[in-house]
Amino acid sequence: MGKLENRVAVITGSTRGIGRAIARRFVDEGASVVITSSSRANVDAAVAGFPSGSVYGHACDISSPDEMERLVEASSARFGRIDCFINNAGISDPFCDVASSDPALWGRVIDTNLKGTYYGCRAAIGYFLRRNIPGKIINMAGSGTDSGSNTPFITAYGSTKAAIARFTYAAAAEYRQTDLSIMLLHPGLVRTGMVSVENPTPELQRQLETFNTILDIFAQPPSVAAGLAVKMASSWSDGKTGIYLSALGAWTKKRLLLSYPFRNMTQRIDRRTY
């Protein structure tokens, strides 16, 4: 029996990358999963890659509070209940300095990452409280979350991740007297479309060698984050809230840094984009 047998999870932004890896692992552990994206075509393509009946696809705009409420309602109607809600969907701003940034794109990152997480939490918390379900909510941390972690040239992304961390801890404190588990997961550095070096901005072109070296040293497959997500969604977190787990903690960073020369020399660096 899997660790998530008979549980239902909603995962935003789960047609590719980290979200898809989490969805795959959840299904392997016995869960039913709701796959989401803003693109209907992407949702349909992703659903086709899972065993029949194990997933349900729902296209929605996470920057709309009404659509997030409808996502929760549709997911509950499809599987009878929801046990876990993961606010995974996110985007980044183009790699550039503040003076050169596009206010519209900067605002879109805020709408998607920060507001989307808030809307997802609001809809899920309301649902869990109405149904008296000891639900689990997992929000996604990132660069900019940890103290001393700066995000130059991607200031919108870094700002949202720092804000999501504070929001998560505040929400966990608000609902500490309930059975809700509101948690924060740092997936580490993963080679996804968000960190792709295709069509680099002029600023990224200037720093491309350094950027690629950082990826070579610290990037990990999304399966690492997926394993932590399973742990957080399982009975391991029952009665706990305000938890923070990271796929790129201090010990992992040290191990990856020390092993880099050997991995580079033996060509064991995984440069696939997930």
Describe this structure in words.
It is a single chain. The protein is α/β, with parallel strands linked by helices and 274 residues long. The chain has one domain (8-197, 221-249): Rossmann fold (3-Layer(aba) Sandwich), CATH 3.40.50. Helix content is 46%, strand content 12%. It has helices at residues 17-28, 40-47, 65-79, 103-131, 155-174, 202-206, 208-218, 223-233, 250-265; strands at residues 8-11, 32-37, 55-59, 84-87, 136-140, 181-186, 244-246. The chain has a seven-stranded parallel sheet, with helices on both faces. Strand 2 (32-37), helix 2 and strand 3 form a beta-alpha-beta unit. Helix 3 (65-79) packs across helix 4 and helix 4 packs parallel to helix 5. The relative contact order is 0.14.
- In CATH terms, what is the fold-level topology? Rossmann fold
Read across the widest sheet, the strand sequence of neighbours is 3-2-1-4-5-6-7
Count, helices: 9
Question: What Rg is obtained from the alpha carbons, in whole angstroms?
Answer: 18 Å
Q: What is the CATH class name?
A: Alpha Beta
Helix content: 40-55%
What is the end-to-end distance? 28 Å
Main sheet overview: 7 strands, parallel
Strand content: 5-15%
The dominant shape is globular
Mean pLDDT: 95
| Name given to the CATH architecture | 3-Layer(aba) Sandwich
Structural class designation: alpha/beta
The helix/strand series, from N terminus to C terminus, equals EHEHEHEHEHEHHHEH
CATH superfamily: NAD(P)-binding Rossmann-like Domain
